[in-house]
From TrEMBL:
PANTHER family: N-ACETYL-ALPHA-D-GLUCOSAMINYL L-MALATE DEACETYLASE 1, N-ACETYLGLUCOSAMINYL-PHOSPHATIDYLINOSITOL DE-N-ACETYLASE-RELATED. Its cofactor is Zn(2+). It comes from the Bacteria. NCBIfam families: thiol_BshB1. This is Deacetylase. One of its GO terms (molecular function) is deacetylase activity.
Length: 238
C-alpha cells in the first residue's frame, strides 16, 4: 500500500519522546486536519520498566489520543544509535516514503545520550534524503522537507519559537499518562526519574513557556534557520 503524504513527521529515539516534547503541537495540528506521523527509532528494549510489547501498545494508544495517522518503529538497537550509514539510510527511506513538509527531532542537548544521537541521525537523513543519487537502489524518489525543527525532551532551553498548546494540553497529558509502564509509580517499578513527578515537571515547563509568550501553555522548539514570517505577524490565522 502506498504511504500517505504527511504534513509533519516527528522522530524520537523511544516511544514517548515525541509526546513529551511536542504532544500538544501534534494534537493541535491534527485537529486542524494536518496529517501527522511519528517514527520511533528503537523499540526501547533497554528501558528499566515495562516490556517492548507493553511500550508498543502504549505508543499506539498515545498516538490515537493525539490524532496521529501513522506510527512506525524501526529496529535500531536501543542505546546503539550511533552515527552510521545504514541507520541514516533507514531514516531516509521513512522520509522518502512519507514525504513530509516538516520534520521534527529531539534537541541535541539532553541528559539522555540517545536523544542527542537521534537528532544527529535525523539531521543527517534530512540532508541525504534530498540527494537524488543517495540510496538509489531503494527505489524511492529524493525529497526535501521544508524544515527540520527540534523539540525538547528532558531539557529546558531558550526556544527559538513556541506553539500555543493551551487548548490541547489535556490531550498531551492524556497521551503521557497512556505510558503507564514508564510514568506510574508502583511497588514493582524500578526507581527512575520518570516515575518521580516527571509528567508534572513537563507540565510546569510548558506552563513557563506559555507564561513567557502570554498564554497558559506553550511548547518550545529550536531551529538552525531563522523562521520566515510573511503575512501573519499580527497573529492572524491564514
Amino acid at each position: 500500500m502506498e504511504a500517505s503524504k504527511l504534513d509533519i513527521l516527528a522522530f524520537g529515539a523511544h516511544a514517548d519522546d515525541v509526546e513529551i516534547g511536542m504532544g500538544g503541537t501534534i494534537a493541535k495540528f491534527a485537529a486542524k486536519g494536518k496529517i501527522i506521523g511519528i517514527c520511533d527509532l528503537t523499540r526501547a528494549e533497554m528501558s528499566s520498566n515495562g516490556t517492548v510489547e507493553t511500550r508498543m501498545q502504549e505508543a499506539k494508544e498515545a498516538a490515537n489520543i493525539l490524532g496521529v495517522r501513522v506510527r512506525e518503529t524501526l529496529d535500531i538497537p536501543d542505546r546503539g544509535l550511533f552515527l552510521n550509514d545504514e541507520y541514516i539510510k533507514e531514516i531516509v527511506r521513512v522520509i522518502r516514503r512519507y514525504r513530509p513538509e516538516l520534520v521534527f527531532a529531539p534537541y541535541i542537548i539532553d541528559r539522555h545520550p540517545d536523544h542527542g544521537s537521534c537528532a544527529r541521525l535525523v539531521e543527517e537523513a534530512v540532508f541525504s534524503t534530498a540527494i537524488r543519487k543517495y540510496d538509489e537502489q531503494a527505489g524511492l524518489d529524493a525529497h526535501r522537507p521544508k524544515a527540520i525543527y527540534f523539540y525538547m525532551v528532558n531539557g529546558f532551553h531558550k526556544p527559538d519559537f513556541v506553539v500555543n498548546v493551551s487548548e490541547f494540553m489535556d490531550k498531551k497529558l492524556d497521551a503521557l499518562h497512556a505510558y503507564e509502564s514508564q510514568f506510574r509509580k508502583n511497588a514493582a517499578a524500578f526507581d527512575t526519574p520518570l516515575i518521580n513527578g516527571y509528567i508534572e515537571t513537563v507540565e510546569a515547563r510548558e506552563r513557563l513557556f506559555g507564561k513567557e509568550a502570554g498564554v497558559v501553555f506553550a511548547e518550545g522548539f529550536l531551529s538552525k534557520k531563522p523562521l520566515l514570517i510573511d503575512n501573519d505577524l499580527l497573529g492572524e490565522e491564514k
